[in-house]
């Protein structure tokens, strides 16, 4: 895993790529937030960074690393930060970090996930296309 983008504190003053509240519908059979829900939010946050860099359609090709660091609870406000860390010919590697602001009326905030995902820029036929030098 690449070096973390942020310390364990919620990066105040920096807007997350997405912010979403964990809802009862996102729980598993035990009543805890389903890991797949968080993976999906992480992928969305990563894809936005990749899409902007590719200036067009992209697909997820690989989840290189994914770590669930702390649980997410119903009512938590989850902020996801993402940053492009490597650009190849057609691929874009993105680091994503998630923080949960707890819903218990405190300032408590925990790092909940870290991931590194690779996206590929694709053309109209769904084939890889060069990302180019566009920033
Ligand atoms: C993404 C896709 C178009 C790539 O097609 P492909 O012909 O296999 O592409 P290539 O082998 O040329 O690889 C494309 C890039 O991905 C990289 N790549 C391939 N496999 C990879 C892997 N396992 N991990 C990281 N990067 C990988 C290659 O290094 C290459 O990067 P570069 O051009 O920057 O050097 C094709 O695999 C695909 O459509 N996959 C399904 C994607 C999808 O539907 N995702 C959502 C799932 S619901």
UniProtKB/TrEMBL annotation:
Molecular function terms, GO-annotated: long-chain fatty acyl-CoA hydrolase activity
Biological process per Gene Ontology, one example term: acyl-CoA metabolic process
GO cellular component, one term: cytosol
Keyword hit for DNA damage: no
UniProt entry tagged with the keyword NAD: no
Domain HotDog ACOT-type intervals: 12-125
Keywords assigned: Hydrolase
Gene3D superfamilies assigned to the protein according to its UniProt record, in alphabetical order: Hotdog Thioesterase (3.10.129.10)
Cited InterPro entries: Cytosol_ACT (IPR040170), HOTDOG_ACOT (IPR033120), HotDog_dom_sf (IPR029069), Thioestr_dom (IPR006683)
CDD domains per the UniProt record, alphabetical: BFIT_BACH
Family: Belongs to the acyl coenzyme A hydrolase family.
Protein name: Acyl-CoA thioesterase YciA
Taxonomic source organism: Thiohalophilus thiocyanatoxydans
């Amino acid at each position: 895993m690449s070096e973390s983008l942020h310390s364990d504190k919620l990066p105040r003053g920096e807007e997350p790529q997405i912010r979403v509240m964990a809802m009862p519908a996102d729980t598993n059979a035990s009543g805890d937030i389903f890991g797949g829900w968080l993976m999906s939010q992480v992928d969305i946050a990563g894809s936005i960074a990749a899409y902007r860099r590719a200036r067009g359609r992209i697909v997820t090709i690989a989840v290189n690393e994914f770590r669930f660091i702390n649980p997410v609870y119903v009512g938590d406000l989850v902020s996801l930060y993402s940053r492009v860390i490597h650009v190849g010919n057609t691929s874009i590697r993105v680091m994503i970090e998630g923080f949960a602001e707890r819903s218990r009326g405190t300032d408590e905030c925990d790092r909940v996930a870290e991931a590194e995902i690779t996206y590929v820029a694709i053309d109209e036929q769904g084939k890889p296309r060069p990302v180019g030098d566009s920033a």
